[in-house]
Amino acid sequence: MDPLEIARWQFGVTTVYHFIMVPLTIGLGPVVALMQTQWVRTGDEKWLRMTKFWGKLYLINFIMGVATGLVQEFQFGMAWSEYSRFVGDVFGAPLAMEGLLAFFFESVFLGLWIFGWSRLPKKIHLATLWIAVAGSVVSAFFIIVANSWMQHPVGVELVDGRPVMNDIWAVLTNNTALAAYSHTIMGALAVGAGFVVGISWYQLWQRRRDGIDSVDAAGRVVVGENASIPGRDRKDHSVWLTSIRIAAVIAIVGFGGVAITGDVQAKLMFDQQPLKMAAAEAACQDGTSFSVLSIGNLGSQNCDDVVGIIEIPGILSFLAHGDFDTEIKGVNTLIPEYQELYGTNLPDDPLYGERAGMEINYLPIMEVTYWGFRLMIGFGMLAAAFAALTLWIVRKGTVPRSKFLMGTALLSIAAPFGANIAGWVFTEMGRQPFVVVPNPNPSGVDGVFMFTAAAVSPGVSGEEIIFSLASLALVYALLLVFEVRLLIKYVRGGVASAMPELGHPEGGDPGNSGDPDNPNDPNHPDRRDDVLAFAY
Amino acid sequence: MELLPTVWFIAIAALWIVYLLLEGFDLGVGMLLLFSTRSDKQRRLMLNAIGPVWDGNEVWLITAGAATFAAFPFWYASLFSALYIPLTIVLVSLIFRAVAIEYRGKGSSDTWRMWWDRALGLGSLGSAFGIGAALALTTTGLPIDANGDRVGGAFAWFTPYAVLGGLAVVGFSLVHASVFLGLKTDGEVRARARNFVVHWSPVALLPIVAWVLIIQFQHGTVITWALVVVAVVAVVFAWISARAGREGWAFVGIAAFLLAGASSIFAAVYPVVLPSTLNPAFDLTISNAASGEYTLGVMTVVAGFGLPLVFLYQGWTYWVFRNRLSEHHLPEAHTVKPAVAPPVSAR
C-alpha cells in the first residue's frame, strides 16, 4: 500500500476535523469574554447568564479542539519524518513557541476560569478568561506562521541543501502569515458569531412557540414569562435578544474582515503561488476574466476541455493586481515555467520510493481548487447575508414563529464552518505537488522547496498509517456524535442548563433546608458556602 | 562539548520530567478510577482533585514534543516515526481521556458515566504506558539505520525495554496519584490512597527502579550513581512519611524521587539522544540531531522568558486550588432538562 496517499488523507482528515473545533473556540472565546466584561461592569444579570450559557457551550467544544490538536503535533514526526528532518530547523520553532507562549496560558487560565467562579475576585476571574482567550488567539498566530512558511519560505538560508533559519523576525512577519492570520481570525469570528445567531434564534423562537413571548399589532414583542419552565423568565428574553444582536453585528464585521484580508491574501498568492491561483480560476489561458462558472473536465491535464461559461472581464486582474487589464498567466503558460525551474521529473533519489524519476504533475487537482475557492466565498457570503437579514428581522424584539425560518437559522450555523473548510482544503490542495512551495517571484528564499512525495516517513508502512487513520477516523466520528448531542442537550436546556440555580431560586434543593445534625449534608447550614461553584 | 545543544538536551529532559511530575498524578487518578468501585461521589472527588490543573499539566507534553521538534528535529523525526503504533495508541488514549474528563459529568445516566469512566481509565493507562515505552526506548535504543529510519517492521519497537518503560510510568503514576490524593482529598478517598501507597508502592515502583538501574549499569558515572542514591533515599522517605500520615512530606519525597531518578537516566545517556541498536555509528546525538546555532539561540531566549512565567502562573493555580477537597464540597450532579413547555396534551 502506498504510504504517501494514505498519509495525505490522514493529514487532511485530521486537520479538517481539528479545524471544525478550533475556529469555534477562537471565535466564541472573545464573545464570552465580552459578555463577562459587561457583567462585571454593569452588574446586570443578563450578562452573567449569557456568560454562563455561551461559556458552557464554549467548553464543550474547547476540549475537542485540545484533544485533536495533539494529533497534529505528533503526526509530523510519525508520518512525515523526512519533512520534519528537512524543515525542523525553522518549522519546529513556531510550534514550540506556541506551546511556551500561548498554549500554556490558554490551558492554565481556562482551568482557573472554569473552577474560579466565586473563588477568585470578580475582576481577576474575568482576567483569567481574557488571558485564556488571548492564549488561543496567539496560539493560532504561531500555527499560521508555521503553515505560511510552507507556502512562502522566508528567513532561511540553504546549508547542505537544507533550510536553516537565520532570521526569526522574517519568519514571524512573513507577509503570507500576516495575511493568512488575519484572514483566519476574521473567519473564526464569523464562525463563533454565526453559532450564537443560530442558537439565539432558536431560543427566541422557542419562547414564542411556548406562548411566553408574543407580538402586538405593530409587530413589537410582548415579553412574558413561564415560571414552570426553569430559566424562562422575562430576563431570559433579553439574554437571547442581546446575544443575537451582538453576534449578528460581529458576523457582519467578521465577514467584512474576511473579504478585505482575503483580497490581500489573494494578491500575495497571485505573486507567490501563481499556479495555485490559476488553478483556483481554472484559468488555462492567460487573461483578465474572472470565471463565475466553468464546465468541462477540470481535472484534465492539457486543460483544453475547460470551457468558461460565465466570465466577467477584468475582475481577475482586479483581484490579482487592483487594475482591470493586467494579463494573468494561465495554467498553460505557467506549467512550462515551473518545469524549467524545478524540473520535469522527480529526482532519482531513494527518498521518492517508487516515484523516483516520475514525471511531475505541477497542476493541483482543479476540481478541488476551483470549487474550493468558490464554496469558500459562497458560504461566507451566505452567512453574512443571513446575519444582516437577522439584524433586520429582530429589530422589533423577537423572531417570527416560522419553524422553517428557525430551521434555516440553525442550518446557517454550518455556513461559516463550510467556508473555513473549503478555504483550507483549497489552499492546502492548491500547493501540491509541493509540501514546501517554491516561490518563482523571489521574495521567498530561492531554491527552498520540497515535493510532497519526498516528505513521508521512509520507515513507516502503509498498513501502519491505515491503522492510525482508521482508529482516528473512528474515534473522531464517535466523538463528533457525542459533542453534537451534548451541545443540543445544553442548547435545549436554555440558560438553566448552565445555571442550575435558575431552576431552584433558593440554591440547593427547593424545600430542603438541610439536616443541621449531619455535617456531610450539602444543604447543612454551615456547608452551603463551602460548596464549589463548579465541579466535574 | 557543545553549549547550546547541551542546554537544549537539559531543557528537554526537564520538560519531560516536569511533565511526569505533574501529569503523573493526573494519569494515575484516571487509572485509579478503574479500580475505584465505590460511590459516584468519591469518583467525582478524585476527578475534581485534578480538575482545575490537568489541562495545564498536559501542555508540558505538547511543549516537550514541540521543543524536541524545534531543537532536535532528527531525534523527533526518528523517534516518532519509529514508534508509529505506540504513539497512535497514545494519541487515541489522550483524546479519550481529555474528552472523558470534560464530558463525564455532562450526562445524567449511570451508563453514560460508567463508559466515560472506562474511557478515562483506559485512556490514562494507554497514555502512561505508551509514553513510558517511548521514553525508555529513546534511552535504550531502537533499530534505526543511517538515515534514522526504523528497520524491522511495525513492531520492531516491541522489546522488553518497551514493556519495562511502560510499566515504569504506569506504576509510578499510580503511586504518585495516591500520594497526591492523600494530600488533596479528605475522608475515605484520602485513607484509601494512603493505604495504597503503604501497601503497593514497593511493587508499583519496581519497574521504574529497574529502568534506572539498567541505564546506570550500562552508562553510569559517579554523578549519576549519586543521583540514584538520592532517589532511593527520597523514595524511602516518601514511604515512611506516607505511613506516618504526613502527606505533604510524602509528596515531597515522591517528587524528589522522580526528579533524581529521571535525571540520573538523562544524565547517563548524554550525549546520545537515540541510540541505534544496529550500529553505534547510527546513534543520534546532541550534535548530529540538533538544529542550527541560530535556531537554538532563538529558542533559548523564548524558553528563558516563557518557562519562568509558566512556573509562576501555574504555581499560582496550585496555590488558588490548594485546599483539600471533601465530598461535601461537591455540588449535586445537575440534570439538564429541556427548557420547553410540555406538549399541550400533557398540560
TrEMBL record, chain A:
Q: Where are the transmembrane segments?
A: 16-36, 57-80, 100-117, 129-150, 180-202, 239-260, 371-392, 404-426, 465-482
Among InterPro entries, the record links this protein to: Cyt-d_ubiquinol_oxidase_su_1
Per its UniProt record, what Pfam families does this chain match? Cyt_bd_oxida_I (PF01654)
Q: Show the ranges annotated as biased composition (Low complexity).
A: 512-521
Give compartment(s). Cell membrane
Please give, as recorded in its UniProt entry, the membrane topology of this protein.
Answer: Multi-pass membrane protein
The primary location reported for this protein is membrane
Q: Which UniProt keywords apply?
A: Cell membrane, Electron transport, Heme, Iron, Membrane, Metal-binding, Transmembrane, Transmembrane helix, Transport
Could you tell me which residues belong to the region Disordered?
A: 501-529
Is Transport there in the keyword field?
yes
Tell me the protein family, please.
Belongs to the cytochrome ubiquinol oxidase subunit 1 family.
The name this protein carries in UniProt is Cytochrome ubiquinol oxidase subunit I
Its source organism is Rhodoglobus aureus
Automatic annotation (TrEMBL), chain B:
Q: How does it sit in the membrane?
A: Multi-pass membrane protein
InterPro entries in the record: Cyt-d_oxidase_su2
Q: Which residues cross the membrane?
A: 6-35, 82-100, 120-141, 161-183, 195-217, 223-242, 249-274, 294-316
What Pfam families would the database entry show? Cyt_bd_oxida_II
Q: What is its main location?
A: membrane
Keyword line: Cell membrane, Electron transport, Heme, Iron, Membrane, Metal-binding, Transmembrane, Transmembrane helix, Transport
Where does it live in the cell? Cell membrane
Per its UniProt record, what NCBIfam families does this chain match? cydB
The record's comment on protein family reads: Belongs to the cytochrome ubiquinol oxidase subunit 2 family.
Name of this protein: Cytochrome d ubiquinol oxidase subunit II
Q: Where does this protein come from, organism-wise?
A: Rhodoglobus aureus
Q: What is the lineage of its organism?
A: Bacteria, Bacillati, Actinomycetota, Actinomycetes, Micrococcales
